[in-house]
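Q: Given only this backbone (426 positions), what sequence would you predict?
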């Protein structure tokens, strides 16, 4: 008796997904990746958190509003309404001072205002941002090569010195004089970066220590130089130099606008740095050395040579930032001519995630905070130091993406399902 084997069952065809469900799935997956993995999202959330904490600090710093919280349980509307008005007014002034004032723009279209008043906030933002682009790029490119160039301040100071001296001590035609002064600033910063680069390559001296020491040397040298005969303004008794000749100044828009050609130069230099890092052989070497110096050496690259050239380039960028500062904004040498553009460049590079274009936009953001902070201080009475606190908070959250993702309960995206890798921050 034979038993017939049962016939195999036909494979069941899974039901086809509807087109709408497939599109919805892809769209949801895209949003999931954008929300949980894109560094832009973390940056936006970091700025949001900084503004929230800044709002709390603004309320605490105002004694009149803070006094209303003493009877919060009986009439909470008084404290909440006053807090909302204060914070809203402060942040509105921050926007008006950094981007544009809607009233000024409306007056321009009505014919009762002028274009200078309407563009003045944006002009101030770009004026503050221009030198920060160069010092930020200086730090960013050093980071990409595995070095921590904390000496951008000293390199910028030397750049201001040589550019300023070339601006009032050399008589040249317009145009040529500007080029010579900018080149002097670039060379000064490059030389100041060459020293720690060479020490790093030859002796292994840590660049953080050497560049910090050189910051002090540059600042003290500037303080001594502006009191010397031939440099100090003969009509002044304080520590201030002669005025830079008009032929060496960066062209600017008509007063009261202060924005000058330096911001255009900053964009061009950013594009050049981006090309150098991503397209040139030197960029490939510095990235390889930055990731793994022993492997780069095994591959035939000279690690010491790369370190030296990298610090020269980084120093030249910072020196160019100092030149833009003295030739575009200050027009003479003082003890604080460079301000803190070198140290602010550290924060700008960090906020821009050490990417050239990210650094450019971060510098513009910092310039906007500075320009808007001035209006906040005058109009609302908010201390300018509080704007610095906002800057610091933004950098803290940017530097700790894991903290931001924990606060907002973000999860790492499975970008492989999309067939492409998604950047997940640091």
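A: Predicted residues:
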């Amino acid at each position: 008796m034979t038993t017939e084997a049962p016939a195999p069952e036909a494979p069941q065809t899974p039901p086809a997904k509807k087109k709408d469900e497939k599109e919805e799935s892809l769209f949801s997956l895209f949003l999931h990746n954008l929300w949980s993995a894109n560094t832009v999202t973390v940056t936006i959330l970091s700025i949001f958190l900084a503004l929230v904490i800044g709002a709390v600090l603004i309320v605490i710093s105002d004694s009149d509003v803070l006094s209303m919280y003493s009877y919060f349980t009986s009439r909470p509307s008084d404290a909440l309404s006053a807090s909302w008005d204060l914070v809203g007014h402060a942040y509105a002034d921050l926007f008006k001072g950094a981007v544009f004032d809607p009233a000024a723009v409306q007056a321009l279209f009505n014919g009762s205002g002028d274009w200078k008043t309407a563009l003045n906030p944006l002009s101030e933002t770009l004026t503050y941002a221009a030198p920060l682009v160069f010092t930020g790029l200086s730090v960013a490119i050093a980071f990409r090569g595995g070095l921590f160039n904390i000496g951008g301040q000293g390199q910028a100071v030397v750049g201001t010195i040589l550019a300023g001296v070339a601006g009032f001590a050399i008589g040249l035609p317009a145009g040529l004089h500007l080029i010579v002064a900018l080149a002097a600033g670039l060379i000064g910063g490059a030389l100041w970066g060459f020293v720690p680069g060479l020490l790093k390559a030859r002796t292994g001296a840590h660049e953080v220590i050497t560049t910090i020491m050189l910051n002090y040397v540059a600042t003290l040298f500037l303080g001594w130089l502006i009191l010397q005969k031939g440099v100090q303004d003969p009509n002044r008794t304080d520590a201030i130099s002669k005025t830079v000749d008009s032929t060496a100044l960066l062209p600017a828009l008509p007063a009261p606008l202060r924005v000058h050609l330096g911001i255009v130069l900053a964009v061009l230099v950013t594009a050049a740095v981006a090309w150098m890092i991503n397209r040139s052989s030197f960029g490939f070497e510095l990235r390889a050395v930055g990731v793994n110096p022993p492997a780069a050496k095994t591959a035939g690259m000279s690690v010491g040579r790369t370190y030296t050239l990298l610090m020269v380039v980084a120093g030249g960028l910072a020196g160019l930032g100092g030149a833009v500062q003295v030739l575009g904004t200050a027009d003479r040498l003082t003890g604080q001519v460079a301000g803190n553009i070198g140290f602010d460049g550290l924060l700008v590079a960090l906020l821009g995630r050490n990417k050239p274009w990210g650094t450019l936009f971060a510098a513009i953001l910092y310039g906007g905070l500075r320009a808007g902070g001035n209006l906040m201080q005058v109009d609302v009475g908010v201390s300018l130091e509080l704007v610095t606190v906002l800057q610091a908070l933004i950098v803290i959250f940017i530097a700790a993406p894991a903290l931001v993702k924990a606060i907002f309960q973000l999860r790492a995206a499975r970008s492989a399902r999309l067939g492409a890798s998604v950047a997940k921050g640091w």
